[in-house]
Automatic annotation (TrEMBL):
InterPro entries: DUF1214, DUF1214_C_sf, DUF1254, DUF1254_sf. Residues 361-472 form the DUF1214 domain. It comes from the Bacteria. PANTHER family: BLL3101 PROTEIN. Residues 98-231 form the DUF1254 domain. PROSITE patterns: PROKAR_LIPOPROTEIN (PS51257). This is Lipoprotein. SUPFAM superfamilies: VPA0735-like (SSF160935).
Amino acid sequence: MKRILTGVVMGVILIAACALTAVIVAKNRTLSVGIRAATSGMGDASVSDLGDVEPYPVIEFAEKHAYDLGGQAYLWFYGRWRMILEERDFVLKNGAEINSLLKYRDPPTSDDEIYVTPNLDVLNIVSFFDLSEQPQILTIPPVEDGRYYTFMFVDAWHNIIANVSRQHYPQGGQQVALVGPDWQGELPEGAIRLDSPTNTVALLGRIRVSPEIPEDVAKAQSILDAVQLAPLSATMDVQVAENAVPGQSYELIDPNARQTLGIFDNYREILRRNPPYGKDAYAADIFEEIIPGAGLAPNPVFMAGLKEAAQDSQRMIRTSPMASRLRGWSMTPPEVSTPDWSWLLRAALTEYGILVNVKEESVYITTTLDSDRKSMTGGESYELRLASPPPVKEFWSVTLYDMATAQLIANDWDKFRIGDNTPGLKYEADGSLRLFISPEPPEDADYVPNWIPSTKDKDIQLNIVMRIYGPTDEILSKEWFPENWKRQ
């Protein structure tokens, strides 16, 4: 009897798989015809008739289809899931509220682990907005003395909405009105209106600071403290939307689902709160049939292919080459902030460089290798010679990190970076620059400002990040590019 029941069950699964495959083929017949039409005239490389193809066994075809399409669906949706995870950390890890400002008032030190590769060049301000009920008004105070600042706004699908920065408003002193997709009404006079295609918007603001100069830190902090946020109803009579579909989604995900199909939990509700638009909407239609809980009901054959696709797609994200290489350095590609059709690039970006800015504002150049293509480690001394400092519209810096932890390396001098605002930075007579990394300071005291302390621990691999703010065309085209660090 047990064998009979087993046979019946397997028969039902086989019949279901056949029916499912028939549905898939029917749904994709138009696409198949389009592919054949597009590849006509390619000789032997083109398949002109379905009869030319020996079909897969039904079960194998269904599982392969689920793997191929499911992998693309995973990469496409991962960027959205990762944005929700960032929103979740904003609320639950940092204790902030939606529609509030999280301000990092002090330059980070080696005792802090607030985020990966902490930035000492700027004071950061972060927020997640929910615009479903009414607009939010961000007030940016006047920014004097030519100090660099930028406020970048990113929608739920990690598309950059706008940058309000020194390049556009040199003196600061703006009001920014963040408006959701369905809102209509009056705004404060003179406010910069930013229309978001989604009700969820992330903010990353940066205000330049010289961390070695206490007086400058105090000035930057005063600007940071003056940045204010309020709902539109705090300044104007406005009808607040009732029973609005919320934008916030942080409670809808499992933060431990990264390598599983669990990233699709509450998929329908996630899309309802911040519907995809443009190319993402088209992608959602394509993947409707394969995402668990979105289209067809899950079945054992499809789930096997999907689970494997999720694991392999996560490996692709972890090994994705996000940067172009030259002389051992890697530079974030200019298009990295707007990955457009590349779902893999967007997935990798949100995993390792979420809320990265546009190329007009900044690019990063990184290395872990010396001129002999060997890993740079503690216990060694290195020198970098720059024929000229980076040609920038704004400023530049070089910061040292522990490769394994992506954090600053503790040292007795509490010094972690050098930049064009480092006090006493020494240039050569011809305008060139010598920079040093070593456990002990240079013998020539004149070069101490040009030195970043490392560690005597040879097991620690070093990671050097050169941040370029306001890169010129020389940098973006790699006409200017740093040489390698040389082991001394």
